[in-house]
Amino acid sequence: MKLSLEETVTEAICFHSQQAVEKFLKAYLITKNIEFGKTYNLEYLLELWVKKDSEFKGIDVGDLSFYAVEVRYPDEFYEPIIDEAKECLEIAKKIREFLMKKLEL
Question: CA of 58: how far to CAs of 49, 53, 69, 96, in Å?
């Protein structure tokens, strides 16, 4: 089954938004010398931060963890819709902005 350009783009946006947030959170954990192991689970990474800084309680990663593996290696084919892609991108932008402020960059 061949994907349309729109379907290919939405899948890529969702996956890369998850990847960006994962890397943002891991980079921030590294700057504070907090070990986290090998994981794609954004909720787990975020929980590590909540223990150290209550400001992280306000961060919402939505359903981004879903897009780490499930969309890339699905048992059943799944195509995110445009609204999902927009939401994923907005979450990534908000978390990036939050962490940049925390790092004073």
Answer: 11, 11, 25, 14
Q: What is the dihedral of CA 88, 66, 79, 94, to 10 degrees?
A: 0
Which has the closest alpha carbon to 59: 72, 49, 73? 49
CA angle 90, 93, 96 (to 5 degrees): 150
pLDDT tens per residue, the chain (105 residues)? 555 656 578 888 999 999 999 999 999 999 989 999 898 899 999 999 888 888 889 899 998 988 887 555 555 667 888 999 999 999 999 999 999 998 887
> Is the pTM for the entire model greater than 0.70?
yes
Locus of tokens 């946006």: 13
Structural domains of the chain ordered from first start: 5-102 (1.20.120)
